[in-house]
Amino acid sequence: MMTDESLLPEYAANPFIARLPPPLSVEAALAALTDLPSFNAEERLYPAHLRAHCIQRLGQYFEPLIRHLTLEQRIGLLIRQGYLGRNPMTTDYIHRLRNNHERIMQRVWTRRRLIRSKPPPRASRSSGPRGSGRRAASTASCVFILRPWRMTSPWP
Fold this sequence. Notes:
- By secondary structure, the protein is an all-alpha fold.
- It has a domain at 25-35 and 63-118 and 130-145.
- It is 45% helix and 0% strand.
- It has 7 helices and no strands.
- Helix 5 (66-84) packs across helix 7 (134-145).
- The longest helix is centred in the middle third of the chain and has 19 residues, at 66-84.
- The two termini are 13 Å apart.
């Protein structure tokens, strides 16, 4: 079966990326991130002291906006791009591991490299005004993308 990621040559040979769920379309991300509260029309007939408990369900309500969907895509892209530099199938990764081991053994704590290799994986940060939903969207995206998985073999 051909996945979207297998069409991209930079992702095809990376066993870490192969174990991630496939990137989501906007429609799939909208469906995955939306968390609607349960509703029963009979609850309208409940006494006031019980309806107050039903109203508390709205605290769990989450309807993603465009910025949340964009954030979900960026987090997925960031994770995949971060794994590009950590591909155990490349010699650069092995050289970087060996380099880090040698620095530790020599007690060299600077960022100086003992050998020349590609730059390390990238990172990013999120910014925006208070109340814009950064934490809610990033938490929802990470929970969906970063499900626990167990790798029995480094090869898919």
